[in-house]
Write a structure and sequence with these properties.
Blueprint: E1 3-4, E2 7-8, E3 13-15, H1 22-29, H2 32-35, E4 42-43, E5 60-63, E6 66-69, H3 77-89, E7 96-100, H4 105-116, E8 121-127, H5 143-153, E9 161-164, H6 172-182, E10 186-189, E11 193-195, E12 198-199, E13 204-205, E14 212-215, H7 220-233, E15 238-241, H8 247-255, E16 260-263, H9 266-269, H10 273-283
Parallel strand pairs: 3-16, 4-7, 7-8, 8-9, 9-10, 10-15, 15-16
Antiparallel strand pairs: 1-2, 5-6, 6-14, 11-14, 12-13
This protein binds ligand RRO.
The site of ligand RRO has 12 residues, from loops.
């Protein structure tokens, strides 16, 4: 049984934020979902202080061995999440990690304090792939911004704070060290790689937002390398993710230093991928899954 920041988990496979809608899955699969939940902890979609509609379509686009997304954070906002979504997510049979994002330290603080105050929440993931409106810098691309944010948030809760690292920097390990110095309990990596595609039919950007984030098996070797350099220089646990679609893939990330692994894009293809991957890890019988 893995211990993650003092939280006991049944197995090392969780979901990547934003890639599995547990509320919809509960409606589709009913109580069967609770009996055989695919992940040992559940990470919510990222929530923001105020409600957001998200980006105009098209929001996703298939690429060789992966996909691009620019969903744009559709969510009910902090209040709507706490009132409507959290009680439903609390029914899940696993610890709940809530992913939060804001564009200034005051809003981040309010979110962390209000989310951490809820007993249903085991840990908080900080999605720092967003600009600080005061400095204009993407927080997670800048070590000083990341450390300063953590120093503000750390005193607000004793619950584990996980920093979701962006891969869109030259040296993610420098940001990881900064997060650790600021008091983070863990890091998770990677978020999606900045990327774009042109729709050959229109010769215009395939995504309405112009560009998006690349995920899926195409990014796996990059994720693995970033995980290696991050775990080499930090003491805190790491959640490794990026294109994991089989037990063999997950075993690579665990061997590279991850305490837990997260499944993202593969769950769109196979909503039960988490259970399959956990089972393959436990039995050591690895099936190579189909690639997107
Ligand atoms: O909502 C998104 O478009 C999104 C987010 Br917040 C993120 O962190 N990573 C990503 O690939 N998409």
């Amino acid at each position: 049984m893995p211990d993650f920041c003092g939280i006991q988990l049944e197995h090392p496979v969780i979901n990547a934020s934003g890639t599995y809608d547990a509320i919809v899955a509960r409606k589709v699969f009913g109580d069967e979902l609770l009996e055989d939940f695919p992940f040992s902890a559940f990470v919510s979609k990222t929530i923001t202080p105020e409600p957001r509609a998200g980006n105009e379509p098209r929001r996703i686009w298939e690429t060789p061995a992966g996909m691009l997304n620019s969903i744009g954070l559709p969510n009910k906002g902090l209040e709507g999440f706490l009132a409507e979504d959290l009680p439903q997510l609390a029914d899940l049979p696993v610890p709940l990690i809530v992913s939060v994002m804001a564009t200034n330290r005051e809003d981040f603080s309010r979110m962390v304090a209000d989310v951490a105050a809820r007993d249903e929440v085991a840990a908080i993931e900080l999605n720092v792939s967003c600009p600080n409106v005061h400095s204009g810098l993407i927080v997670g691309e800048n070590p000083a911004e990341t450390e300063a944010l953590l120093k503000v948030l750390r005193p607000l809760t004793e619950k584990p704070l996980i920093v979701k690292l962006t891969p869109n920097v030259a040296a993610p390990e420098v940001v990881a060290v900064a997060a650790e110095s600021g008091g983070a309990d863990a890091v998770s990596l990677i978020n999606t790689l900045k990327a774009s595609a042109i729709d050959p039919a229109t010769r215009a950007p395939a995504l309405a937002a112009g560009h998006g984030g690349l995920s899926g098996p195409a990014v796996r070797p990059i994720a693995l390398q970033q995980l290696r350099v991050v775990t080499a220089v930090t003491e805190i646990p790491a959640i490794g993710m990026g294109g994991i679609s089989s037990g063999a893939d997950a075993a690579e990330f665990l061997a590279a230093g991850a305490t837990l692994v997260a499944v993202g894009t593969e769950s769109f293809r196979d909503p039960k991928a988490g259970s399959r991957i956990a089972n393959e890890l436990e039995t050591g019988v690895y099936q190579r899954s189909l690639r997107i």
